Amino acid sequence: MKLTKTNQKIDNNVCKALTIACESSLHDVPGFIWLTHRANYTNFPASLLITCVFNSNEEVEQMKAQQQDELLRDIIQKQLLKVGVVVKNIKNAVNFDSEEMCDLQHGGDWEKRLALRVVKQKPNAKRMH
C-alpha cells in the first residue's frame, strides 16, 4: 500500500532516526548487526514495531544478561524523540531477534518472519545496515 505524503514524511523521519540509532549501536552493543521497523500509519506511533537483529541467539541472551537491551531501547527512543516520535512503551515497541532463528524457522526469509509479528498491520519494513 502506498503511503500518503504525510505518512511518507513520518516514515522517512523514522528511518533517519533508526539509521542513526543503528549506526551508533553497532559500536556499543556486541553482536548487534541491523534493525528494521514496521508500522501501520493509521495507528502511529502505537503500531511502531522495531526489530533489532543479532547474529545468534547466544548473542541476544548475552546482550540481555548485560542489560544492553535497555541501552538499545534508550538509544532508539532518544533518536525517535529527536524527530518528534513519542513511543509510550518502548519495551513493547522494540524486539530482539537473530539471523540464526530466522534461518532455522523461516529459511532466512525476514519478510515472512517479520510479517508474523504484525497483526492487522500493513507491513512497511525497511532493512537497514
Number of strands: 4
By helix and strand content, what is the structural category? alpha+beta
- What is the first-to-last residue Cα distance? 24 Å
* Radius of gyration using CA atoms only: 14 Å
Give me the number of helical elements: 6
Note the quaternary state here: single chain
What portion of the residues fall into strands of 2 or more residues? 15-25%
The helicity comes to 40-55%
Number of domains: 1
Which residue ranges are poorly predicted, with pLDDT under 50 across at least 5 consecutive positions? 119-129
Form type = globular
Read across the widest sheet, the strand sequence of neighbours is 3-2-1-4
Give a quick account of the main beta sheet: strands, pairing sense, barrel closure: 4 strands, mixed
Organism: Colwellia echini
Protein name: Fis family transcriptional regulator
